[in-house]
Automatic annotation (TrEMBL):
Reactions that this protein is recorded to catalyse: L-homocysteine + L-serine = L,L-cystathionine + H2O
Source organism (scientific name): Penicillium frequentans
TM regions (residue ranges): none
EC number, as in UniProt: 4.2.1.22
Protein name listed in UniProt: Cystathionine beta-synthase
Disordered: annotated span: 112-134
Top-tier EC class: lyase
Length: 351
């Protein structure tokens, strides 16, 4: 039977691309959770529909507009941001729309995304961080950004790690959208943590509507964000390949205690779930989306969701930045991540 999908987004013209940040779709997952033995209704919040392609566009917009409003920055100033990539893209995009703002950003390992934003004007520099565990080392991307802020005239680090507009973008934006889109029928939220702005803001924004909403976070093995700290101890500073989540210090904006359940996630399962989101749900996501699914699966294994539960999972970005990485079988094989092991519950056939 042929089915015609009816679009639900009203066709209106926008004044600028920054109006296409936020109000991302919430889409039901129809195969993957079912095949993993998860009975709850699971919705995915598709953050790759933001203008710059990730959840970080939201904080870029809010950090810049609040800094403008307060008079901290003016056109022509230089913005510097240490970032693994997505915040840099967001800042470059918002800066481009707003005229003369320039952006510099310093990704530790992301050449593909760096090339992607260069046409938008930022002068980009690449600072590999060979000394894991020492992100605040002077030659790390954070150390270099801090030095440049002092050296360059009218330069500012808006600093996603400390800036309250990072979690606020999610408390006032993402969380409210989810509350509205689920009509308040939500029992749990799942997201990965990098700076922690997403999970902290979501928790604050949703728990003020309903304190019983459970907040579940993913933190990769090798990172130290999870609580209790014993969760992190077995594999401290072990390198991992999933990008955008996990740190070797606790960012100021992360409220670790507001998370009800932390789960440690592996590269192998994360990439496998991302590939399954693509193959089975048609969602062209990046690797940290798979980590969020891994946390969902572990949460369900520990305490089964019921069929009446509604769970929302944040999918932060798209496959765009990873075409030569986990999307590529050869890359997975070269990194000993392919073929991915299939967790026991995934053997059931998709509906
Ligand atoms: N996934 C990806 C791909 C990201 O770039 C980020 C941002 N570092 C996150 C997840 C986590 O978001 P947050 O910084 O808000 O914790």
């Amino acid at each position: 039977m042929s089915v015609t999908t009816q679009p639900v987004i009203p066709p209106v013209a926008l004044d600028s691309i920054t109006q296409h940040i936020g109000n991302t779709p919430l889409v039901r997952l129809n195969r993957l959770p079912q095949s993993l033995g998860i009975e709850a209704t699971v919705y995915a919040k598709l953050e790759f529909f933001n203008a710059g392609g990730s959840v970080k566009d939201r904080i870029a917009l809010r950090m810049i507009e609040e800094a403008e409003r307060s008079g901290r920055i003016k056109p022509g100033d230089t913005l510097i941001e240490p970032t693994s990539g997505n915040t840099g893209i967001g800042l470059a995009l918002v800066g481009a729309v707003k005229g003369k703002l320039q952006n510099h950003y310093y990704p530790p390992r992301e050449d593909v995304r760096r090339k992607g934003v260069r046409p938008a004007g930022p002068q980009c520099d690449h600072h590999p961080n060979p000394q894991r565990g020492r992100l605040r080392f002077p030659e790390s991307h954070i150390g270099v950004a801090r030095r440049l802020e002092k050296e360059l005239p009218n330069a500012h680090i808006l600093d996603q790690y400390c800036n309250l507009n990072n979690p606020l973008a999610h408390e006032l934006g993402t969380a409210q959208e989810i509350w509205t889109q689920t009509k308040g029928e939500i029992n749990a939220i799942v997201a990965g943590a990098g700076t922690g702005g997403t999970i902290t803001g979501l928790a604050r924004g949703l728990k003020k509507h309903n304190a019983n909403i459970e907040v579940i976070a993913a933190d990769p093995f090798g990172s130290i964000l999870a609580l209790p700290p014993t969760l992190n101890e077995s594999r401290v500073n072990e390198p991992y390949k999933v990008e955008g989540i996990g740190y070797d210090f606790i960012p100021d904006v992360l409220d670790q205690k507001i998370v009800d359940r932390w789960y440690k996630t592996e590269d192998r399962e994360s990439f496998q779930y991302s590939r399954r989101l693509i193959a089975e749900e048609g969602l062209l996501v990046g690797g940290s989306s798979g980590s969020a699914i891994a946390a969902l699966v572990k949460a369900n294994q520990e305490k089964k969701f019921s069929k009446d539960d509604v769970v929302v999972v944040i999918l932060p970005d798209s496959i765009r930045s990873y075409l030569t990485k986990f999307a590529d079988d050869d890359w997975l094989a070269a990194n000993d991540l392919f073929p991915a092991a299939v967790p026991a519950e995934t053997n059931a056939q998709a509906q």
